[in-house]
């Protein structure tokens, strides 16, 4: 049973940046001329196969892109041969195929709309990015190696030459000073030399905070990136002094991190809304002995302070929706106060994506609204089934008129 409190905030309409917004990379002609879809993407970490959560367990009827995590980055810039688990990636028998990649290749034949993206780095595996990005030689080797990995592994194999794109995502978490920000742009430029934008997608996962984003010239980054995955979660956790929503869209206090603040900052740089995916966590963060946001807590429940969404709300608790912050939570039981998203809050976030309009741009004489591109979810296999599914709720809300 769900209850809500707080008045729903008006969805703000941002004013157009004073910069001249550059023309975003052209989407596939097939998309622009027929059925334009919002992106509804998921991450699939390869280790999930050991839990019985195979690629075929994803609801691919509601998913446009799968980010396959992760490939590792070597200190020389090499990624070819650096997939993080060779057995899971290419050897295990799964879904009637060999390896998770083999399963995804088969699934792509059944779901022609699906795009498979290799995600490089991620979390602690990002440590080599700063070193690689600092040198022209290692940047070039990175670009060559990424091209080899994508072409050899069949990530988003070409359906119609010239229309489909092969894809990769740079998951450097994250440039931490202005010099690294400049190196980040140089790295993207080097990759684009080897992955031309008429055939390959290039994306980046970035934190949802000005403290990190300020080091990157996002206005220039749009020349290289097809879109960014804005990780609008983990605003609070076991490191926080007080309990709080960890994926709220709006903040209750000026010093609270929230998704809309990061989006507004990005848009203020001239980076287009049409190149932003808003991140949704498919897990909750626990604060024991807390009763609400801003309350003190003592420890965290679950696995390292988290519960997978499919295990929420916790047994014997009541689920409540905060319509001011845009976040759900449950209170009591073994999790204490647990912050997460549910179908209703995902629907609100999808509506925000659709309403955050900045203007129009022209592609092949078709006028397309410059709106947030959609949502992505970490991780797809932690979702619930049926009416509790976050991914299905997001897809429906994005595509309903």
Report on this structure.
The chain contains eleven helices and 18 strands. It has 401 residues and is of the alpha/beta class. Helix 5 (136-153) crosses helix 6 and helix 10 (343-355) packs parallel to helix 11. Strand 16 (360-363) and strand 17 (366-369) form a beta hairpin. Mean pLDDT is 85; it is low at 1-36, 156-165 and 358-368. The chain has a single domain, classed as TIM Barrel. It starts with a strand and ends with a helix. The chain has helices at residues 29-33, 86-91, 99-110, 129-133, 136-153, 178-194, 210-213, 218-221, 259-268, 343-355, 390-399, and strands at 2-5, 39-45, 65-71, 93-94, 97-98, 115-121, 166-171, 200-207, 227-231, 276-281, 283-287, 306-308, 318-322, 327-331, 337-340, 360-363, 366-369, 374-378.
Our count of domains comes out at 1
Number of H- or I-type helical stretches? 11
- Outline: globular
Please indicate the percent range of residues in DSSP E strands (runs of 2 or more). Answer: 15-25%
Helix content: 25-40%
Radius of gyration, Cα only, in angstroms?
Answer: 20 Å
Task: Describe the sheet with the most strands.
Answer: 8 strands, parallel, barrel
Q: What is the N-to-C succession of helices and strands? A: EHEEHEEHEHHEHEHHEHEEEEEEHEEEH
Assembly context of the chains? single chain
Q: Tell me, rounded to a whole number, the average pLDDT.
A: 85
Strand count: 18
Poorly predicted regions are 1-36, 156-165, 358-368
Q: So, the CATH homologous superfamily?
A: Glycosidases
């Amino acid at each position: 049973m769900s209850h809500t409190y707080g008045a729903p905030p008006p969805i703000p309409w941002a004013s157009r940046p004073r910069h001249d917004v550059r023309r975003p990379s052209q989407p596939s002609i097939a998309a622009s001329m027929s059925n334009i879809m919002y992106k509804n993407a998921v991450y699939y970490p390869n280790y999930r196969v050991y839990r019985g959560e195979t690629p075929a367990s994803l609801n691919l009827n509601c998913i446009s892109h799968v980010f396959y995590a992760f490939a590792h980055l070597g200190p020389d810039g090499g990624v070819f041969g650096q997939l993080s688990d060779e057995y899971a990636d290419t050897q295990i028998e799964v879904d009637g195929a060999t390896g998770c990649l083999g399963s995804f290749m088969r699934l792509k034949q059944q779901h022609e709309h699906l795009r498979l993206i290799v995600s490089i780095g991620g979390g602690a595996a990002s440590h080599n990015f700063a070193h690689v990005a600092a040198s022209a030689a290692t940047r070039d080797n990175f670009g060559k190696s990424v091209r080899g990995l994508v072409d050899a592994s069949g990530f988003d194999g070409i359906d119609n030459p010239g229309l489909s794109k092969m894809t990769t995502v740079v998951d450097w978490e994250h440039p931490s000073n202005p010099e690294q920000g400049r190196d980040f742009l140089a790295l993207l430029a080097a990759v684009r030399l080897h992955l031309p934008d008429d055939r390959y997608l290039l994306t980046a996962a970035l934190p949802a905070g000005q403290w990190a984003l300020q080091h990157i010239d996002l206005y220039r980054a749009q020349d290289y990136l097809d879109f960014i995955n804005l990780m609008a979660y983990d605003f609070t956790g076991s490191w926080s002094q007080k309990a709080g929503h960890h994926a709220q869209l709006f903040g209750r206090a000026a010093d609270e991190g929230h998704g809309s603040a990061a989006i507004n900052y990005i848009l203020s740089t001239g980076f287009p809304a049409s190149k932003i995916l808003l991140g949704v966590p498919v897990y909750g963060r626990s604060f024991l002995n807390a009763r609400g946001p801003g309350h003190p807590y003592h420890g965290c429940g679950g696995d390292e302070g988290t519960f997978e969404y499919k295990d929420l709300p916790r047994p014997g608790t009541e689920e409540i929706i905060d319509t001011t912050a845009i976040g759900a939570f449950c209170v009591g039981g073994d999790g204490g106060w647990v912050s997460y998203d549910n179908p209703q809050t995902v629907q609100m976030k999808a509506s925000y994506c659709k309403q955050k309009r900045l203007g129009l741009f022209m592609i092949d004489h078709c006028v397309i609204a410059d709106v947030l591109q959609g949502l992505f979810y970490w991780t797809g296999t932690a979702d619930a089934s049926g009416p509790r599914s976050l991914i299905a709720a997001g897809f429906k809300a994005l595509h309903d008129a």
